[in-house]
């Protein structure tokens, strides 16, 4: 009668022991990149199957000094060491999670003694020192009946994938930052050249004005105006040269070196922007080319496995422990057959009441999944926006640069005519001053726009992933909750 009653009661106990997961479910849904309309925004750009950036994309710029600087930065920037350390931390957590799935075996030896006073217990027990010596070998193993430990390990593996990709992304970002800072250095040199030309024009105008004053054509007012233009031009040139020093210091910091390293960086070559092209498989392949998207996808996977681990905790589990050893009072008989002992202790755990801890833990895991999905979806939107914005900007810069060059040519012709008229006593110094300022602004505008175009082409390389190619990608059907 008793065995049959136990068989009836046991299922009820097991059912009661399983805390309820009712109503707990993540709500996040991964967005399909094809659902984000981008055809019209990107349709006017030439497509090419080979338009994805190469991993060493900066070599196409054709500047050996830039190649060497990026190689130096990749070898010496401390930020990369931090990214690598975070990746190693994630791998260590994988090891910890895997160890939780394995049995543990341990050995121990102990000796404890006690002398009981005769005032407590009479002899022969009292007044005598006794020692308990023991040697033991223990074993324990927690079964993973519902896959919770495996899911926790898989979540750690997914996080390690994400951390590894973050480390690769840090290298791609550093390469782009060095290249963009190098372009700014080239721009600073060009601005310094323009300022130097303005100095020469100011000095030349001052010389002409002195000749006209000596000839009685101009007054002291025009002379003072011409004299004031020289130190103003000098100030602009000094500011431009200071910008060169500043950009060299910035580059040195990116290399992980001191400011003196920047002094050895020579003037960059004139760099040409790459042809404006887009990959034929955009946006579908962008998912595997952008490190931020791939890392975010792995984190969605990790959150999904964390939910599975949290759900497994609602169900009963079996733990097994055992021990064998030797024990004896005093030193005699420790290794005798009479000193042997063993222990075998299987146990079943039933979560009956925990104050809502399991449900709160699962709710937190669901929320973490929703957060990971939201971050992935936002990264996807930002990635397409980034590509479209770079394309729009580069496409707009082409006519802007042509217009600015035409304006600069016209301003140069006007300055030459104004100066000839002034030299011949027909025009005024005010005419020269006005067109001289127009020429300066036009030349600076051309330099700024050309720099923006080269910088924009590098930004487009970044937007397209910077040459990143994932060694492993999350499963395509990883969204188990969609």
Question: Layout of helices and strands, plus pairs?
Answer:
Blueprint: H1 2-17, H2 39-42, E1 47-48, H3 64-76, H4 78-99, E2 104-115, E3 129-142, H5 148-214, H6 220-254, H7 260-263, E4 278-279, H8 286-289, H9 291-312, E5 317-329, E6 340-349, H10 357-423, H11 429-463
Parallel strand pairs: 1-4
Antiparallel strand pairs: 2-3, 3-5, 5-6
Helix pairs in contact: 3-5, 4-5, 5-6, 5-9, 5-11, 9-10, 10-11
What does this structure look like?
- This protein has helices at residues 2-17, 39-42, 64-76, 78-99, 148-214, 220-254, 260-263, 286-289, 291-312, 357-423, 429-463; strands at residues 47-48, 104-115, 129-142, 278-279, 317-329, 340-349.
- It is α+β, with helices and mostly antiparallel strands and 482 residues long.
- It has two domains: 25-101 and 145-315 and 356-463, Outer membrane efflux proteins (OEP) (Up-down Bundle), CATH 1.20.1600.10; 103-143 and 317-350, Outer membrane efflux proteins (OEP), CATH 2.20.200.
- The strands form two sheets. A four-stranded antiparallel β-sheet has the order 2-3-5-6, with no helix packed on it. A two-stranded parallel ribbon has the order 1-4.
- The longest helix is centred in the middle third of the chain and has 67 residues, at 148-214.
- The protein is elongated, with a radius of gyration of 38 Å.
